[in-house]
Amino acid sequence: MKSASRYSQIRPLFIAVVALVLLSVIATACSSDDSELLEFDPESSVIASIAFSSPAFDDGDSIPVEYTCDGEDQSPPLRWSDVPDGARALAIIVDDPDAPGSIFRHWSVYNIPSGTRSLKTAQPTTVALENSTRQGPNEFGRTGYGGPCPPEGEEHEYVFFIYALTEQLDIEDGAGPKQVSEAIRGKVIGIGSFSGMYARR
Which residue intervals of the chain are DSSP H helices? Predict the structure, then answer.
């Protein structure tokens, strides 16, 4: 039987923490200077769950070599469910939390139109994609997707996140991973994730 990935094991806790952080931001924003709180509306404050996956591999499985630095290093195909009402844009981030020292960003793609429900494989490595969609640089220093490339002898987990946002990100082309993450903060009304594993051959 296939064992659950490290991320899959902690996912419920992770989602709960993200929701609590976002709700605390909402509560802080709703407080006035005279400390009077607006009435809390739990329905409008819930962070929606988005079913997010790739037809190329199952959640927690090994990522096929063509989507890594040992193959064509092309982005995998992605698909997701409907997003919550009020979403005006989507963002997708791929991170390696097992990288030594700090989380390593492999992909930042944002300002995806909210009506989009999939991305094809092998997205161009350009800042501008179709419609309003933009890509930022990855931690390799290149624009667009950079596939898994862990040190020899190590298996890393790569986590794919999707965020439904209340507005497009107002950032300059070429904004780095930190700027993209900061721009997303406070705009999230839906979230989804899955992960894949990879070790060099």
Answer: 6-29, 42-45, 177-184
* pLDDT tens digit at each of 201 positions of the chain: 444 555 555 554 445 444 444 444 333 334 334 333 344 344 445 799 999 999 999 999 999 999 999 999 999 999 999 999 999 999 999 999 999 989 999 999 999 999 999 999 999 999 999 999 999 999 999 999 999 999 999 999 999 999 999 999 999 999 999 999 999 999 999 999 999 999 997
Alpha-carbon distance of 185 to 110, in angstroms, equals: 13
Q: Flag whether 113 is in a domain.
A: yes
Q: How far is the C-alpha of 7 from the C-alpha of 10, rounded, in Å?
A: 5
Domain of 163?
47-199
Q: Reduced to 3 states, what is the DSSP secondary structure of residue 174?
A: coil
**Angstrom distance (rounded) from CA 42 to CA 23:** 9
Q: What is the CATH number of the domain that holds 116?
A: 3.90.280.10
The answer as to whether 27 is a domain residue is no
Query: Residue 6 domain-assigned?
Result: no
32 within domain boundaries: no
